[in-house]
From TrEMBL:
SUPFAM superfamilies: Homeodomain-like (SSF46689), Tetracyclin repressor-like, C-terminal domain (SSF48498)
Name used for this protein in its record: TetR/AcrR family transcriptional regulator
Keywords: DNA-binding, Transcription, Transcription regulation
Domain HTH tetR-type: 17-77
DNA-binding region residue numbers: 40-59
Methyltransferase in keyword set: no
PROSITE patterns: HTH_TETR_2
Taxonomic lineage of the native organism: Bacteria, Bacillati, Actinomycetota, Actinomycetes, Kitasatosporales
Length: 199
């Protein structure tokens, strides 16, 4: 292939940022609708009227495409929260998660299932989706310890992030118990804050 033809081919295969976001949104919609197994290169291509060859050329495989879509979406519940107190931070985090239920919660559930079922995707999901949220919650607790709000040896501090993520994951299984109130804020007030000794 001549240099001119190669340049023309590269130009044709380049995906604009807007088109990339459109493709990512299709991936996220498929994740929400049916979980990781529902995402296929063929399905994304059909939904976006994009050539399957273009998807493979750009992302190589489904795990790479899914990870890129999740990384671009950064559906963050907890990053950037800093109210000045640990109780305030955790209450705001619980409210933020409750406000963003629905599409984001469906995505978190799909990601959680994929994390367990697909080892090839696990490390990418940890790095892209889970670790930033866990780090944000851990930072809230660390600041609380540094301010003297929580004893450094309080063992409940290690369980804040797992508890938050766990309740988000299983909340729908207990809808009958939380018809009036959101599960995470209620769990925070009834379990986490008392265990930490803050109010």
């Amino acid at each position: 292939m001549s240099t001119q033809a190669a340049t023309a081919a590269a130009r044709r295969s380049k995906i604009s940022p807007e088109r990339e976001l459109e493709l990512y949104e299709a991936v996220l919609d498929l994740l929400r609708e049916g979980g990781y197994d529902a995402v296929t290169m063929e399905g994304v291509a059909a939904r976006t009227k994009c050539g399957k060859a273009t998807l493979y050329r750009q992302w190589k495989s489904k795990p790479v495409l899914v990870t890129a879509a999740l990384g671009a979406s950064r559906c963050s519940f907890f990053t950037g929260i800093d109210t000045g107190t640990l109780a305030g931070d955790l209450r705001e985090a619980a409210r933020a998660a409750s406000r963003r239920k629905g599409r984001d919660t469906e995505l978190m559930e799909a990601v959680g299932q994929a994390y367990v079922m697909h080892p090839d995707l696990r490390e990418a999901l940890r790095e892209t989706v889970l670790n930033p949220e866990i780090a944000a919650l851990d930072a809230m607790v660390r600041r609380g310890v540094e301010r003297g709000e929580v004893a450094a040896d309080n063992r409940a501090a290690d369980f804040v992030a797992p508890a938050f993520m766990g309740v988000l994951r299983v909340e729908r299984l207990f809808e009958d118990r939380f018809t009036e109130a959101e599960a995470l804020p209620e769990f925070l007030e009834a379990v986490i804050l008392p265990a930490l000794g803050v109010s």
